[in-house]
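Researcher: Sit down with what I've pasted below and flag anything odd:
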Amino acid sequence: MTDARSILSVETARDHEEWSRAFSYWLNTRPENTSRAYRQAWSSLIEQTGKIPSELDYLDVAGWVEWMKAAKMTSSTINLRLAGISSFYRFLGEASRQRLANPTQGKSLRQKVYRWHGARYLDAETVRRLMLSIDRGTTRGARDYALLAAYLFTGRRNSEIRVLRWGDIEQSADQSWYRWQGKGKSRRDVLPEPVLRALLDYLNISGRGGSIHKENYIFVSSRRREVEAPLSASQVGRILNGYLQAAGISTHYRVHDLRHTAAMLRRAAGDD
């Protein structure tokens, strides 16, 4: 890890600009969505307390938590923000070897979270209508069907599916797997058969079945000039809600809601 002293000295940093620069440096190692959430946490904490990290104590953070609760933020959001700030303090200690008391420590600051509380998901009938609205005979339709099927069958997050490369897929005579990157770690899971079939159909219809290389992204824009780039998070969101609208479903859903949907459908089927 790069020495944090090259960007900040915990002992001598005196203004918000220095600390914000250090925080931005640290965020460069985080995934896009995590980085966005942590940056919101940082801005909120500094705005509410008016202090720099070396001046903060437990009571300052406790007051910030109370402010977030009064603002009707969910327990999950509050805990995520606390986790981001706490992780930044750990980074400073590890990278600079300069001890700085972490004011976010203490179980009393963490909010109790009830599993599935507030989760939004599609019921089985809505999922059926969604998937039937896709024309699988076109390259774009075949791509979108495989993309949404992957989310619904695996329960993976937005970035864990849209950036899959062909080399992440492994096949044998009787089983297939996929490798995905989550929270900085590489993992390997069984690839459901319906997803594999949909992927192969998409690649064949698009003409990429015999030419795709291991390093190539699977889900790419239908525009040839963007063939080397994966779909963006916003593109996937538009794809999902475009088909929901085509299916006559007016409710707007996030791609993350497909993760909840996968879990609830498994639960309805008797799985954990």
Summary: Confidence is low (pLDDT under 50) at residues 1-6. The two ends are 38 Å apart (CA to CA). The CA atoms of residues 237 and 255 lie 6 Å apart. The chain is about 50% helix and 5% strand.
